[in-house]
Amino acid sequence: MYPKELRYSTEHEWAKTEGKRVRIGITKFAADHLSDVVYIELPAVGTEIKFMETFGVVESVKAVSDLYAPVSGKVVEINKALVEKPEVLNTDPYGEGWMILVEPTSPGEMDKLLDAAAYAAHLGEAQS
Amino acid sequence: MTDTLKRTPLFEVHVAAGARMVPFSGWEMPVQYVGIIEEHRAVRTRAGLFDVSHMGEVDVQGPGAIPFVQSLVTNDVSKLAIGQALYTPMCTPDAGVIDDLLVYRMSDTDLMLVVNAGNTPEDLAWIRGHAAPGVRITDRSAEIALLAFQGPRAPAILQTLTAVPLTEITYYWFRPNSTVAGRSVILSRTGYTGEDGFELYARAEDAVHLWAAILDAGSSDGVMPAGLGARDTLRLEAGYLLHGNDMDKTTSPLEVGLSWTVKLQKGEFIGADVLRRQKAEGVRRRLVGFTLEGRAIARHGFPIHAGGTADGRVTSGSFGPTVEKSIGLGLVPVEGAEAGRPLAVEIRGRAVPGAVTKLPFYSRSK
User: Fold this and answer.
1) What is the ipTM for the molecules in this complex?
2) Which of B334, B329, B324, B231 is nearest to B282 (CA)?
3) pTM to 2 decimal places
């Protein structure tokens, strides 16, 4: 459910270090909770995003949710295929459902994120 | 904590089926089982079974029942035959819609009104407050369960459970005392999805048996339970209004496209004077369907820029799983209400372009 190589925000985004870049998406918990994702709004390439500020929006049939940046940095790539087929988020949130690739400006922010065990514990608390 | 939510007789069945339960109009109801879009598509292509037992049922009985209900609603109850049902708004003296309801004519002295769950207490107070002599009003909501079995395969599947020849029950007709899967129900060819199908009014204690029998009979046809989420996207595509969203006491039936339910020739009824005046003078705003470019969704309350003197507002909006577009309903000034007119909905500070679209967005092939 929550891959060990990823780091997690309390707002249910995941971040994955790939060399000098960080790939960002939302967790299976978030995707399941949203259910039936029909629209995704991502920032343009080149946009500067800031730690735990909104960088985009996900809409399901029933609700709209903001996306929060798990790291600060410059967006260098966005997943255009996901924008075209948002339902992929429900089936493959950690793979084809990735959202943006970022060049972090403060890589140390990754240390503020949760590891898989801490995120699972966070969910346990959030669900009770 | 919030007030205690009411539960239908099928609550445990929904939980066991893995439904996501949510508060709705004071009830704890299944919003989805496997997913709104999958359930929506099942109803459009096969059939889906809904628990809508939260709806209210009110019997109005006695020699004065028909003239009394005739004085409360805008449509013409006197035209109903025994065994026929009618859709109608019920209005305030200012022609605001208190609720929209179905009227079933059981006999010359016995009507059943089916009202929206969240409005049941207010409707009952209103109806009782205007009750005439010779009329008995009974709230039967707690003892009646309501299952809606909707979709192109629903009639054939239901036919395997009953000896009643279903082809004899046509749209907006019903048959009381019908035996389905060994239980007595009112079998009504009505629905809120834009598909063929039936609604079954059953005794509350029979709901679990009937639910299981219908799902079992339909299992090889891909029938699945469907939640309120799919019910909402289905009704929106079909252009049906939801009271509390698309109309309420601040809107008249003539403003929201229900002029076909307002029978000004039938004699006096509550709201008739204002409706007559509105009809003579014309209304200033209208409820319209719209389609947006792209996939961002217009949510209830978002502003609509449609030309004219004032902004409009979205009353319902969703992604339409069958039409595969961002669609909605909204109140706009009459100047901007013509089908094909461009408009824009303000979504998170951005004007998303679209156009007024003739309703319904979807109609089934017959």
Assistant:
1) 0.85
2) B334
3) 0.94
